[in-house]
């Protein structure tokens, strides 16, 4: 099946090193294309659950020169952290990172990743949801994480694969890799069927 997937010219449209690493671990051959950031402002009336797929589709428009070429399949993705109905995007600074982490402490939140596969003749869009339970962390623990890791490039200000995931997350329900940034199990299946 992996040869079938690799018969396409797959383009990962993402600057995320985590997405690149996860996709490479599957054995899928792909090329990375990165263009300048798009405006990730969401239109009114879109439900929280729809936001990640909506943003992944918006990103696809910027890669039209690649998916219109026969044989190419372009993958775009967007991950959000949702606490009740509040979307926690990437923090603006260290203080907003600390505030986000404080909000997550002692609560369950959802990580939703939207993925879009697009070629000149076909488009498949899906989302994956993982529930994550955070333990109550002290102010010192939050400060340690923010000062010693990179929360600024992550939705919700944390990476489950980092120190905070080791000591601060008590359980998850769903795909671990979805929380890292790409639901590779579902993506692999969708690429096989593409």
Automatic annotation (TrEMBL):
Belongs to the Maf family. YhdE subfamily. Gene3D superfamilies: 3.90.950.10. GO terms for molecular function: dTTP diphosphatase activity; UTP diphosphatase activity. The active site is at 78 (proton acceptor). NCBIfam families: maf. CDD domains: Maf. This is dTTP/UTP pyrophosphatase. Its cofactor is a divalent metal cation. Nucleoside triphosphate pyrophosphatase that hydrolyzes dTTP and UTP. May have a dual role in cell division arrest and in preventing the incorporation of modified nucleotides into cellular nucleic acids. It comes from Alkalitalea saponilacus. The record marks 18, 79, 161 as: Important for substrate specificity. Keywords: Cytoplasm, Hydrolase, Nucleotide metabolism. Its main location: cytoplasm. InterPro entries: ITPase-like_fam (IPR029001), Maf-like (IPR003697).
């Amino acid at each position: 099946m992996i040869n079938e997937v690799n018969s396409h010219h797959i383009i990962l449209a993402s600057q995320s090193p985590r997405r690149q690493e996860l996709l490479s671990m599957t054995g899928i051959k792909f090329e990375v294309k990165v263009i300048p950031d798009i405006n990730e402002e969401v239109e009114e009336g879109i439900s929280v659950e729809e936001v990640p797929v909506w943003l992944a589709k918006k990103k696809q428009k910027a890669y039209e020169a690649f998916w219109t070429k026969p044989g190419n399949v372009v993958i775009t993705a967007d991950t959000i952290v949702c606490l009740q109905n509040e979307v926690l995007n990437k923090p603006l600074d260290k203080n907003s990172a600390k505030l986000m982490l404080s909000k997550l402490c002692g609560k369950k939140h959802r990580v939703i990743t939207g993925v879009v596969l697009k070629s000149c003749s076909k488009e498949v869009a899906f989302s994956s949801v993982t529930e994550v339970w955070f333990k109550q962390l002290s102010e010192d623990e939050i400060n340690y994480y923010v000062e010693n890791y990179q929360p600024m490039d992550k939705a919700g200000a944390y990476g489950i694969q980092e120190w905070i995931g080791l000591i601060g997350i008590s359980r998850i329900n769903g795909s671990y890799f979805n929380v890292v940034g790409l639901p590779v199990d579902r993506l692999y299946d969708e690429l096989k069927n593409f």
